[in-house]
Amino acid sequence: MAGDDVKKSDANASGGVKRKEVKKETGLGLTNCKDDNFGEWYSEVVVNGELIEYYDISGCYILRPWAMSIWETMQKFFDVEIKKMNIQNCYFPLFVSPGVLQKEKDHVEGFAPEVAWVTKTGDSDLEVPIAIRPTSETVMYPYYSKWIRGHRDLPLKLNQWCNVVRWEFSNPTPFIRSREFLWQEGHTAFATKEEADAEVLDILELYRQIYEEYLAVPVVKGKKSELEKFAGGLYTTSVEAFISNNGRGIQGATSHCLGQNFAKMFEINFENEKGQKGMVWQNSWAYSTRTIGVMVMVHGDDKGLVLPPKVATVQVIIIPVPYKDADTRGIFDACASAVDILSGAGIRAKADFRDNYSPGWKYSHWEMKGVPLRIEIGPKDLANSQVRVVRRDNSLKIDISRTNLVEHVKEMLNNIQHNLFDVAKQKRDACVKTIRTWDEFVEALSQKKLILAPWCDEEEVEKGVKARTKGEMGAAKSLCSPFDQPELPEGTKCFASGKPAKKWTYWGRSY
Amino acid sequence: MAGDDVKKSDANASGGVKRKEVKKETGLGLTNCKDDNFGEWYSEVVVNGELIEYYDISGCYILRPWAMSIWETMQKFFDVEIKKMNIQNCYFPLFVSPGVLQKEKDHVEGFAPEVAWVTKTGDSDLEVPIAIRPTSETVMYPYYSKWIRGHRDLPLKLNQWCNVVRWEFSNPTPFIRSREFLWQEGHTAFATKEEADAEVLDILELYRQIYEEYLAVPVVKGKKSELEKFAGGLYTTSVEAFISNNGRGIQGATSHCLGQNFAKMFEINFENEKGQKGMVWQNSWAYSTRTIGVMVMVHGDDKGLVLPPKVATVQVIIIPVPYKDADTRGIFDACASAVDILSGAGIRAKADFRDNYSPGWKYSHWEMKGVPLRIEIGPKDLANSQVRVVRRDNSLKIDISRTNLVEHVKEMLNNIQHNLFDVAKQKRDACVKTIRTWDEFVEALSQKKLILAPWCDEEEVEKGVKARTKGEMGAAKSLCSPFDQPELPEGTKCFASGKPAKKWTYWGRSY
To answer: Which residues of chain A lie closer than 8 angstroms to B158, CB-CB?
Structure first.
């Protein structure tokens, strides 16, 4: 139920003209279209949706409560799950001494260009500069060496929730590529490779759940190429998402088997049951606030954020729609009562009673913030003992009786959660292009496809692909070889080298 | 029920001789006594109790899972409470640009000597060095100025859980004074001073609860002197604990009213209902991992840590005590079943089934780690369908029937929690010395007392007290003026200046 301004706002699909009308009218709205100016749209929507505030140091961003609560929801899920796996939380220092940082050669080469150095405290220069952790392998493993003596000290499974700093110079983007970000980093050590291998996949499955079941973002599980794996590790698995609007893959989270490489450098040895010396097998794995950025990119639209109900701080926003001659008190009471009823059933509901904004302004405001469901209560609703419910994901409106409110709302939130995933998956799947030759590859790349190609799995060939696709938009690279492999008939050739193909691999431009 | 070694370990009070015997026998134990070498005892107990590992950068420490889980318990409590107060979590960057940092003069003077500066990233020098936050007033308030426009934007109440860096040069001590530490910092802005004043005390009450109800550490609520208040603030309230072993006060947590000083510097203005311009009233408040150090200092003994049940990761450790000819299987099953029964009732219980350690070693090990209750199950216990329960706080042993296990254990844990607080309070109270003259003050200080003295409340007089008590042990200073003031008869004079006293104030040496 609503006035004229409301209908206009409701009817507002992604058409540019109508959108601008709303903006003018309400002072809200976005000036960029997702389809036309994706990058600008993203920068605008994270700010207008109140997830982010830009900060006066480039590449650093303020995470506002609307973003932080999403992070906390994912954190709660993941923390419970890893505790079930007997992984314990700890906290290691922010600072690393240069000697330790440089111990693993490949690793430091991977991170050195991005390391921030503290050289001064107060007015004094430090004798030796100190690095800020870009990740904590080298921070932690000297102590693993100390703590692990015998097989009974294994497995050692630690995790920490913390900030890390990587001073990247290319295109800082909120959530996606920032100079400081929040993440968890798990670091585990096992007696056998089998145990390490198994854990890599258990953790990757949790990352899939975060993306698919919480953020409603479809991902592909797979293995990274040698060129793209973690610096210093044995192999890297990841969940890969895809942004269909700009045709870029994006690494969602990674679960690495480090093998025995760090164990060798940091001398992490143990004595087994038979008194023989062995070296541990290690994993490290992480997901970061990048998750939130991927979610925004996949679901957001020209009206703003679209939050999946499972991570939305406010799942249902209730807006009174009073008229001059109507029973305003009755309408407000009905809104307050709806909040109580829904909250009592564990639904995160809130009413917007502000008297200095029109209902239409509030609709746009909460649409911008991505709240999954809006409930409007006006005079007619009050008279009929009903409420009007509007879905953020597809703008569908229905009137439902106040007697079945909880049941209906629960069902609708559940539908929205699944619909967001289904729609995103259809979009993603529609972008997948299976190719077999270099020409097909180049064409698919120009069409911004997520390219599935038979590959010989040679590092030099990937370097060649990168070199041959270099350009304004960035070079193409391998994203992952999916665990779920299509059949690869005998004699299939690599799209890039013509050598015998060993596996199917996803390729594309990426973040 | 236990063998010979066990009785020896159990009987082990704080006598040096017996203690050393145990150490030799088990490879555990502490080489320092709490009463004889308090500082060394503390450094040793936090490591042997597995809370802390020393790190290769001085003043930085590794928080091991045994410490982290205590932090998480307090975090959970506090986070729920502040969310009830509509305070929202957020995350601001680690880095501050120098211009912003230096905006509030008194504030920057207070922190500048301890600020760590990033001047280099990768191989490049930064054009302008960047500070690492020592606290976030100057990080946050430029954005408060942006976000707050009208009275409807107030109150603005944010909190963040994060790390901060203060590069102190004096005596780094684990938890108590470290160069990086974890804390929460709340930053709120109100339209009126009344609202700000009320919140200062609401938060202080939560800090009291953390100390007294979780950590079983008695604290005094009060107000800091002008000299000791937060740099740049209007007034500071705190909860103050006292370490009777070395006679030092320790600031437990602080809740500051910043007044309008930062609002002025950062131009945080708003328009009230009547369209008039106003400046906000601000608070900031914080508690840190220092809490854990205070708990260790107050409760620990010569056998190791003593953890209050409410914060202990493991509340009950169950140890099988098999004999050669006994029903080992039966004993192990009884232990496993006790874990199940207690865990099912929400008690954090764990059995130590390791076969390479004797029961006696395990007793010492879990005593060192401070587990509140130990349950021993041997052949006699099995036969009598009972268990032996041993309290960590007072070494009391009782045999209880397995049929009432949950009820008994709950009651004992509750008793331990209260007993720890009561004993600590008696100890603290026994150290309080009320004095009226300078001579009495000097004598009480030499006796390591917590000194309550009538004071004129003048800054110059406090500076004088500091100057006159300077020495090896550090100068005395005011700790707080307790909210709970004894009567101050007309004509009472200041202990230090002889001027008319305005209030009772606690004085002492402090951390």
So the answer is: 65
